Amino acid sequence: MERLLDGLNSQQRQAVTAGDGPVLVLAGPGSGKTCVLVHRVAWLIQARRVPSHHIMAVTFTNKAAREMRERLIQIVGSAEVSSLTVGTFHSICARWLRREAQLLGLSRGFTIFDADDQQVVMKAVLKSLNLDEKKYKPSSIHAAISKAKNELITPEDYPVQSYFDEIVQRAYARYNAVLRENNALDFDDLLTESARLLQHDERFRQRAQERYIHVLVDEFQDTNTAQYV
User: Fold this and answer.
1) How far is Cα 159 from Cα 168, in angstroms, rounded to an integer?
2) Lowest CB count within 10 Å: 2, 7, 128, 186, which one?
3) What is the pLDDT of residue 6?
4) How far apart are CA 74 and CA 81, in angstroms?
5) What is the 3-state secondary structure (H, E, C) of 153-172?
6) DSSP class of residue 206?
């Protein structure tokens, strides 16, 4: 198993071979954090004999996830990697929600609205509320809604301290309704709906807990509230 540690310094080796329980690796840019994460996964599989389907590795970009998967294939082989859950927060949550779509009142073939789709919906929402989009810019309203979603704030709980807040709250509720009417979610929903299921659906949470024994997060310091939950 020493070959799994080849090229690593003493601090990196310590992180890779750490025992069970939470571990936080703090290091500067370019110091090999992702390398440590990749070798940690390999160590769990080959040295600790952890079945690969019990491991999840999460990162922020599709490029980083792809590189992580490619590096793991070189170390542990494609058969082991095929059973791993490796991807971005959004891609992993999307997979969960496709399997559990009925819990959200959606079909498995739900659509994920991209930025352009979201702006089209936002403009239609403002029109339905008789609001002038020149005065209340769709992009500004949507940005406020997106921020609320990432803080796991629902339309019902949205804090209203000004007339603009009241507009956002009304638009937020209608925006969500339009998405559901179209059997759709937006990118923020992938995180927020997954977080809510983990918080409030016992069976969903239990399945996740039984499946994922080791969860490794690259660039953990960049997580927002929804990602952290």
Assistant:
1) 10
2) 2
3) 85
4) 10
5) CCCCCCCCCCHHHHHHHHHH
6) H
